Amino acid sequence: MSETFQNLTRPDDKLFFRKNDRNDVRLGEIVPQTKYEDASIVILGCPQDEGVRRNGGREGARLAPDAIRQEFYRLTPFGIHHKICDLGNLELQNSLEETHDALTNITKKILEDKKKLIVLGGGNDISYADGRAMSEVFGAGNWLGVNIDAYFDVRADVERSSGTPYRQLLEEKLIRPDYLYEIAFQPQYVSPAYYRYLQNLGVNMVSVDQIRSRETADLELRELMRQKFIRHSESLTAFFAFDLHAIRSSDAPGTSVPSPIGLRSGEFLNLVQFAAKLVNTKLIEFTEVNPNFDVDNRTSKLVAVAIHRFCSSQPKING
Q1: Cβ atoms of 226 and 28 closer than 8 Å
Q2: From the CA atom positions of the chain, what is the Rg in Å?
Q3: Which residues have C-beta within 8 Å of that of residue 20, sequence separation ≥ 6?
């Protein structure tokens, strides 16, 4: 395996659930057998919440990658026609900045190997590292970034945190503003100054109320993105960042900053399936799950189902 992956730690074997029933095989019995070279979908964890701490959120997101794995590997492979490899967790570096650098390098390698990547946070500051990798592999003008979140994450702080990733990507010109989508934001949580900042740049913004006013949650996003993909179908790739802050706390109680309102689980899963069905989606991430505050592992289970939906909604391999 590539030297780029030397900073990774394999998941604990106990996370791979085994039913030991040949008529009811689980993903925990299949995924560990798949080599990286043979996989078309790769799972990678980044177990840190330093960015959350810096931004004043509840610490605990560092526990999320393994909590999500524990639920995901209990599921069956029904409908999944692509091989999945789990590379494990990134070993944290001496600072958040160095951890981001390491994550960018690993993400770049996986994307260059033409595999689809699912990154498990951790705090959503990893969107900067993942977005930077998208820019370096595909070019700043050749990718769409979709942030599904209650917040914009464009704080003008000097120190990077979970509140700064999209400001960093924009200010460093790693993404075109009109190729960035801020989806499901909640007006009561966002600064008018940051709204005007994004508006002046030409960033696409759709509030949670706009999303929920449509018949299906993904309709607004589909209409916004349709023309860009029609014009650039061969060149544009897509990155979807699913921050669990976008989900109402009754459905996802275990987050860094819970909210009583937001997307319902079904609406959230519609958006995940939309991302999966776009052939040019190369990278998705799930962030801000906080197992310390979860109830019956409800939030980790929701993300596990979302990963399953993403994998099972991929186009079937011919032959």
Answers
A1: no
A2: 18
A3: none
Which strands form 8-9's sheet, in the order they lie side by side?
8-9, 84-90, 41-46, 116-121, 281-287, 237-243, 143-148, 180-185, 204-207
Rounded CA gap, 87 and 26, in Å? Answer: 18
The answer to whether 47 and 66 are in contact (CB under 8 A) is yes
CA distance 255 to 234: 37
**CA pair distance 93, 293, nearest whole angstrom:** 26
The reported pLDDT for the residue numbered 103 is: 98
Domain locations in the chain as residue ranges = 3-312
Q: Looking at domain 3-312, what is its CATH homologous superfamily?
A: Ureohydrolase domain (3.40.800.10)
- Report the C-alpha gap between 270 and 79 in whole angstroms: 16
Report whether 306 contacts 120 (CB < 8 A).
no
Task: Pick out the chain residues at pLDDT < 50.
Answer: 230, 233, 319
At residue 234, the pLDDT reads: 59
14, HSE (Cβ side, Cα atoms, 13 Å): 2
